[in-house]
Automatic annotation (TrEMBL):
GO MF annotation terms: beta-glucosidase activity
Provenance organism: Pyrocoelia pectoralis
TM region positions: none
Family that this chain belongs to: Belongs to the glycosyl hydrolase 1 family.
UniProt record, GO biological process: carbohydrate metabolic process
Domain of life: Eukaryota
Record-linked PANTHER family: GLYCOSYL HYDROLASE (PTHR10353), LP05116P (PTHR10353:SF36)
Protein known as: Beta-glucosidase
UniProtKB keywords: Glycoprotein, Glycosidase, Hydrolase, Signal
Record's subunit section: Homodimer.
Signal peptide coordinates: 1-22
InterPro entries, alphabetized: GH, GH_1_N_CS, Glyco_hydro_1
Amino acid sequence: MEIRKMNVVVVLVLTSIGVIQANTFHFPDNFSFGVATAAYQIEGGWNKSGKGENIWDRITHKRPEWVKDGKNADIACDSYHLWKIDVQLLKQLGVDFYRFSLSWSRILPTGFSEYINWNGVRYYSDFIDELLANDIRPVVTLYHWDLPQPLQDLGGWPNLLIASYFEDYAKVAFQLFGDRVKTWITINEPNEICDTGYGTGAAAPGIEESGTLDYLCGKTVLIAHAKAYHLYDKYYRNKQKGEIGITIVSRWNEPKTNSTRDKEAAERTMQMQFGWWAHPIFSTKGDYPLVMKERIRNMSQCQNLEESRLPKFTTNEIEYIKGSSDFMGLNHYSTWLITDDSENNCTIVSYENDMGMKNVQDPSWIPSAASWLKDVPWGFRKLLQWIKVEYDNPLIHITENGFADVGELHDTGRIHYHRGYLNELLNAIHLDGCKIKSYALWSLMDNMEWQDGYTLKFGLYYVNFSDPLRTRTPKSSANFYKELIRLRRIPRDTPQLIVI
Ligand SMILES: *[C@@H]1O[C@H](CO)[C@@H](O)[C@H](O)[C@H]1NC(C)=O
Ligand SMILES: *[C@@H]1O[C@H](CO)[C@@H](O)[C@H](O)[C@H]1NC(C)=O
Ligand SMILES: *[C@@H]1O[C@H](CO)[C@@H](O)[C@H](O)[C@H]1NC(C)=O
Ligand SMILES: *[C@@H]1O[C@H](CO)[C@@H](O)[C@H](O)[C@H]1NC(C)=O
Ligand SMILES: *[C@@H]1O[C@H](CO)[C@@H](O)[C@H](O)[C@H]1NC(C)=O
Ligand SMILES: *[C@@H]1O[C@H](CO)[C@@H](O)[C@H](O)[C@H]1NC(C)=O
């Protein structure tokens, strides 16, 4: 109690003198810094040296109008050729690790493990060696949204068989790279894979079957993750001595008013967006959150369905998934205000309708170039506090956090955002006792932002996409982050733009 009171005082004092500049907490010695990217967004070389087609290649080629600027990632940042330059950028920043993803179809062009593309293997193997030679730890995501097209032709993630093919792919990756890769992330943001890929259709493969296929997808993704985890745990961990976990994205959902209904709706939204994935893995009970099961069952009943649209787990599956992560990978960007809408029209089948809420953002919040991304640092701390209570203070790696603009070199909006969010992260560590081990800033450089094409930029480095050489130039934020890593605290000054 005494300590809690003191913390409140500290926060107030810091706030009154401008908490953002004045946070004197340091990042602990065992805390590490990195930056993150994903294969499809940076590599290019979409059909080079035997790579197979994936669902993002397919949709951007077949439906260019579906991407905001009609563009694709056939070349993107051309990291397939410029990877040595990328390592130099990482070296300049002074990061401890680099989080990147493997392209499944570069390694297994058909999606199946019978045929390995050794050119693709060599690319990643050389890249990992180059990172290690420069003292940068590889943190590797196995799946960052780029399903091989032949597996989509079998129905994609809603087909439970995909879980076994994912396990086969994971085995190839552990065998080939596990001697050097000590942190594995199985799957990035299942909510986006399932809700956006098979529900709203705003991500590849662009299927709009919300309230059904998204839930089938979810079951496969959770089982796929658990299969890869158990495979590693059983056959590779002893020898390779690494860690393996999943990365879940979460907004903070704040009740818009203090009414019981809005508070319940905000909690239900946390459970149905984040808990959908976290509860089966990180809670002591396992399985989906109770409120999610109840809510979808009720809506399904109202729709005269005999069974819930949310596919059940068997008792064995619940046990198999529970605890299947050495850490919680957490991606976080922004905050929403939630109002209750649980008495909505139950004849409408959708995940959104199942959640029974409406979400808005406060017009006074600092905007970014992305409509959904506002600079709301306090939401980050509230999310971390909620996770601490809900899942008994798990070990967390922040695997993404970033800000969108349209490409300014003197990117003060990005610096402001990271100052605020890292300040709250320090408070969460030092005042709330959250066990946060690392932070990966999204992203190393501007890249192909999925359905938004090249209209949004998240990079510390500017990439000239009209230049065949894809020249990379550090923005002010690169200097800011470099200084932060060097000092192991938040720098007081915003660096001037230094273009070399
Ligand atoms: C790769 O794709 C490009 C278009 O992006 C095309 O011009 C080229 O012929 C393709 N190469 C192979 C080997 O299929
Ligand atoms: C809800 O109540 C808390 C505590 O009394 C208060 O700090 C907060 O501002 C209230 N929120 C709203 C939206 O009214
Ligand atoms: C589901 O319906 C039951 C019976 O009407 C009700 O008691 C319960 O609160 C509902 N659950 C949710 C989460 O809406
Ligand atoms: C509910 O939605 C259906 C369409 O899905 C519509 O026909 C019906 O009129 C709506 N009911 C109400 C009460 O709005
Ligand atoms: C980091 O080290 C401190 C001091 O030894 C320890 O209390 C803390 O648990 C460690 N944090 C993590 C996330 O391992
Ligand atoms: C980008 O590259 C093109 C082609 O090399 C060049 O003309 C242009 O000046 C560059 N733009 C910037 C902002 O550096």
